[in-house]
Design brief:
Elements (H helix, E strand, L loop, with lengths): L4 E3 L2 E3 L5 E6 L7 E9 L6 E7 L4 E3 L7 E5 L6 E6 L8 E9 L4 E3 L3 E5 L2
Parallel strand pairs: 2-11
Antiparallel strand pairs: 1-3, 3-8, 4-5, 4-9, 5-6, 7-8, 9-10, 9-11
Length: 117
């Protein structure tokens, strides 16, 4: 089963930055949409940002101004989430989601982000 793979999470101090990566290893898969979500303990999964392979990006209100999605450069099935000025309430598991024309849709396993001093 085709599944995106996230990386880049970790422990960061408040005010710091992290850059998350998500890649679909199977380069032959025609991925046209990728998105980032997060889920904090005891909360529902929350949409953060999405990117079409055309370059069209959408950011949620909670992500705007601090988080930026980018990717699909050179035809790669990969996206990134640059996160700046991190706060304690950004602590969550961050998930990548993909949609493709030939391999369906899938979630990644997630990467933990912990913001703490």
């Amino acid at each position: 089963q085709v599944q995106p793979v996230e990386s880049g999470g970790g422990l960061v101090q408040p005010g710091g930055s992290l850059r998350l990566s998500c890649v679909v290893p199977e380069s032959h898969v025609n991925v046209y949409y990728m998105a980032w979500y997060r889920q904090a303990p005891g909360k529902e999964r929350e949409f953060l940002a999405s990117l079409l392979n055309s370059g069209y990006a959408v950011h949620s209100k909670s992500a705007e101004g601090r988080f930026t999605i980018s990717g699909f450069k050179g035809g790669d099935n990969s996206v990134f989430l640059q996160m700046n000025r991190l706060r304690a309430d950004d602590t969550a598991i961050y998930f990548c989601y993909m949609q493709s024309k030939d391999a369906g849709n899938a979630w990644g396993q997630g990467t933990q982000v912990t913001v703490s001093s």
